[in-house]
Each structure stands twice: as C-alpha cells, then as structure tokens.
Amino acid sequence: MGVDAVVIRHGASGAPYRLANSGWIDAVVVNAGDGTHQHPTQALLDAFTMRRRLVGPDAGLGQDLAGRRITIVGDVLHSRVARSNVDLLHTLGAEVTLVAPPTLLPVGIETWPCEVSYDLDSTLPKSDAVMMLRVQRERMNAAFFPTEREYSRRYGLDGDRMARMPEHAVVMHPGPMVRGMEITAEVADSDRCTVVEQVANGVSIRMAVLYLLLGGNEPAVTHTRTEEK
Q: How far apart, in Å, do the first and last CA atoms of the chain sit?
C-alpha cells in the first residue's frame, strides 16, 4: 500500500517491535499498545497531563517532574500503561510507587525503577498524583483476589481516601474506568480527576509523535494573530 506510518495495537507483546524490524515494510511503526508490554503514547500523554497540572501550563523544557511522587494503583500485572509510565516517569526524575496486591504484581518487579507497596492508605498523603488502573478481568484465568468488594475496600479510591491526598494532588486513570470498583463516581467526577484532560491531551501528543516521525524537523511555533483595527 506504500504507507508512511503504521499505528499498531496488538494482543501479543512485542508485535510492534517485530513489525518494525521484520523488513516487511518501509514505514515508521507507532506502538498503540501491545499485549501486557508497553503503551508509550499513553505514558507521554499522562506525563504531559501531570506536568500541566503539577508544574504549570506554561512549563518550559527545563521544568519537569523531577522529585514529584507518583502512585500507580491496581492491576499492574496486566497493565502496559503501568510499565510505560514507570519507565517514562523515572526518566523524568519522578519517584514512582506501585500499589497492588501481591497477586497483581509481575515477576521481576524488583528490577523496575520504582518502589512497591501493598498499603494504599500509607502512600496517599505523600502522593502528587495517583493513577488508578482498571482490573483487567478479560486477561485473568484465575482468582487474583477474593472478591470485588474486598479489592475495592483495600485498593479502591473513594472520597474519604481522596481527602487524605495533598490538596494539590490529582487523580488519573487511563480508562476505561470501572466505577464503583477501583474508583467511585464521586472521585471520577471531581475537579481533581484529570481523565477528560488525558483524553484531550492524547490527541495533541499523538499528533506530535506522527509529526516527528514523519519528517518534522522544525519546532512547533505558536503564531499569535493580531486583530486588525
């Protein structure tokens, strides 16, 4: 077909890498999520959203997330979003903590550049951003926790728990949300939740990725149009 770019979302971990290195195509490959491996553009839009909220909308290139404390909660085992966010946020200097039951943490987690905790309540007061992950039941072939109610009691974010977070802290979610399980409607619909911003920022981030990969070599410049008097 002679395409210049392929955006691939695949159930098999490593599929985008295989395509990019196969010799089958002469095009750039964008990973839109592969299995339980990585989701790089989601991590980019998440970091961009955090930066706008925590550092400021006019943050320059030298103003990053260094020293910020980010907590990622939930089904880390099956989450490509968690893997990409840990990699990127660590690169940007943030301190990342994963919170999940032991059964929902992958083998080798001790090699990841982050801390691990099993106690959500102890991490919330020192978090600048809390990212809730969906429990991916479609990827589960065993009982990873007793009941949904028990999971929500220990690892769900409700209004009371949100109140324990610092005033400036934000709540994030890559979507889709399971309201009433990992996050309550009260939290999801609050001003502290950035879900709508994440979706909107995802458009800009993916435009930038395509621009850079398809030959863009000029920095994006904002031109201010002056109205004629």
A: 50
Domain carrying residue 29:
5-35
Distance CA(165)–CA(129), nearest Å, equals: 9
| pLDDT the model gives residue 175 | 87
Overall number of domains in the chain? 2
Q: Are 128 and 68 in contact (CB under 8 A)?
A: yes
My answer on whether 185 and 101 are in the same domain is: yes
Residue 227 has pLDDT above 60, yes or no: no
Global pTM exceeds 0.85? yes
Residues 68-85 pLDDT 10s: 999 999 999 989 999 999
Task: Answer yes or no: is 218 within a domain.
Answer: no
Contact 151, 137 (CB under 8 A): no
Q: Are residues 161 and 69 in the same domain?
A: yes
